[in-house]
Design goal:
Length: 289
Amino acid sequence: MGRKPRGKICGGIYHVMNRGNRKALIFEDDRDRRRFLQILIEQKETYGVHLLAGCEMRNHFHAVVSTPHGNLSEFMEQWQGCFARYSNWRHERVGHLFQGRFRDVLIEHDMHLLIALCYVFFNPVGAGFVKRLEDYKWSTYAATVGLAPLPDYLSLDWLEALFPGESRQESQLRFRNLMAEAKPALAYLRQDEAGVDPNSVRRVIRSYAGEQFRLENVPRTYRSLLRSSLTELLHEGMTATMRAEAIYDARVVHGYKLAEIARELRLSSSAVSKIFRSSTNLRRGRPAC
């Protein structure tokens, strides 16, 4: 089966990411990171792409970009390709630096964007590199919230749209305060609870963090931003059909392990695994195994 073609949406916003081949390091030192950023700046100017957020880790990177000209693939090919050639030259290597094509998720909603930003900015904290978001210098977070100079290559148009205020500084403070919350996505929703439909919100999160990434690719941090507890998801009195749906959602949408679900239901792991496979096959139009 051929690879799915990339979308070419003029004005589309994407969360893009990739990691080192076989999970190897992409950035071996700060010189590599500086060169990666320099190439990003050069190629974004060439292709007219806007950078909304970014973070360079060790063996992977994340960026949120908008593509006014619908040329995401061309931009990413040049950005990654130029850096791979530089890295192989500098470190005297041959072969692939990245693990296949980049991954991308189309941002379809304000909540999608907020969740993508949360994931990108929380990466260094989750990895234990720093304790505070603003302390990681290879992330755009500090500049985004006004704790570091704003570079010319970073676009903050989204900030005033999501966090309107009388000034950019007020918008930055609102976003910074939100990011200090234990669950930023939930805190964002509480700002306007009167107009929030919880079921609609969960459908939005599901479309972004669940099916689009596919089960094996969803970062658990994404799904934990707005997930219910297993007790809430797997309540007593459910029919067999309802339980199968709840098991599927707990695994795919909320990121719980099958072993965790089995303990909550007091079932064997094999029984829960069978229910999950059957539910997955039904959704994909396949006969249950």
